[in-house]
Design goal:
homodimer, about 230 residues, alpha/beta, eight-stranded mixed sheet, two-stranded antiparallel ribbon, 11 strands, about 40% helix
Chain lengths: ~230, ~230
């Protein structure tokens, strides 16, 4: 499939000087994203409940990443990625409302449950984890993105290009443009606008289908959007 | 992106002699699918409330397709695709319970609403249109597929290859294998297993996001699944 990039260059936003913070950055997904952003030369702060575990995770990925407690990361970062497990999602964001005010918060949390038949989407009262974040953080611009990026591929030093598109959803054009540009710093990745925040539920829930694909085909599946 | 096909050939099911019926085959999506299946050499029956409109639609696509009332098509076809608008979905299937018993029913209905902010997913009491079909038709094997195939591309005589993957969901392996093979008769298309029927909602709802992509990028967007 030919991947055209012309449209994307036009939307490119200047990320120079922006510090990327990752709450829950000691988990697989958060650490994988941190690694790729650090490799691309961005200042990266890994957040965790434990400053020591955050520092250890940062040391393990190298490239100048550093680690601290979630609250310190939320205070210092310009763009804050939320990569915590869903069951701690709401409480963490409520505890960081002041620190996150005025910032772009990128929610990549997937509310997914598992049983004997595999993965399935959990109901979320607000509609989606991203809408829950927006409800809890009225003074931030919440963007939903990075739901389907394989942590295995992000961490694999043999994978130079991560061949997938990141769907970026949100109601603020400047914020979604910024996060599209952030996705595109990972070689191989495009950030593609994917709709308003009210349509985030199905993007989060789609992770259950991707898990099904991975099981059936022994793959680390992702999405490409065709004709874009 | 390299598209590997080896795994797919292994899953290929023999569709020889199977007649494809399309309920709501006079709509854009149904007619486009009918056209591609007929071009691939399969017997295709277009169904509609009006036999005359079905015959007119069949004549317009040629390639040996024929048309009749929905009930006659449901009786004669081996695989029945449901491509009606969501608001007539449940009533139509209830009226065809006897005709559809024992068959594979392929639901490609997208419960989507529109307002000033664009498209959004409609709630479905059963979870999804596909689960609604399964609830109404306990004696059929319901498969969900073909949700994101651009009718414009299907109808365009200049488009030889439709570059996208069709996610195929269902709880019966033989039925999903058959529908994956059916998807693959359209040049360029792969049928990729996408999970159980309980995970159909987000696939149907994802159509709202694809509409958002189409508006932003002036595209006829579709999905490719990477690493498969």
């Amino acid at each position: 499939m030919p991947v055209s990039r012309g449209w994307h260059d036009r939307a490119m936003t200047d990320l120079n000087g922006l510090t990327i913070g990752i709450l829950g950055g000691t988990g697989d997904q958060g650490k994988g994203l941190a690694r790729r952003f650090a490799l691309a030369g961005h200042p990266v702060l890994i957040g965790s409940r434990s400053a020591q575990r955050a520092k250890d995770a940062a040391a393990s990925i190298g490239s100048g990443a550093s680690g601290d407690e979630n609250a310190a990361v939320a205070t210092q970062a310009d763009i804050v990625i939320v990569a915590v497990p869903y069951d701690g999602h709401k409480a963490l964001l409520e505890s960081l409302r002041a620190e996150l005010a005025g910032k772009i918060v990128v929610d990549c949390v997937n509310p997914i449950g598992f049983d004997k038949q595999g993965a399935y989407a959990l109901p979320v009262a607000e509609g989606s984890a991203a809408q829950q974040a927006a409800a809890v953080l009225p003074d931030t611009r919440v963007v939903a993105a990075f739901h389907h990026v394989s942590a295995v591929l992000l961490m694999d030093p043999a994978v130079d290009e991560v061949e997938l598109d990141v769907l970026v959803l949100g109601d603020d054009r400047e914020a979604t443009d910024t996060v599209q540009a952030l996705a595109a710093v990972i070689p191989g990745v495009r950030g593609v606008y994917g709709g308003r925040l009210r349509n985030a539920h199905q993007i989060e829930a789609l992770t259950a289908n991707i898990i099904s694909v991975n099981r059936r085909y022994k793959a680390h599946a992702g999405l490409r959007i065709t004709d874009v």
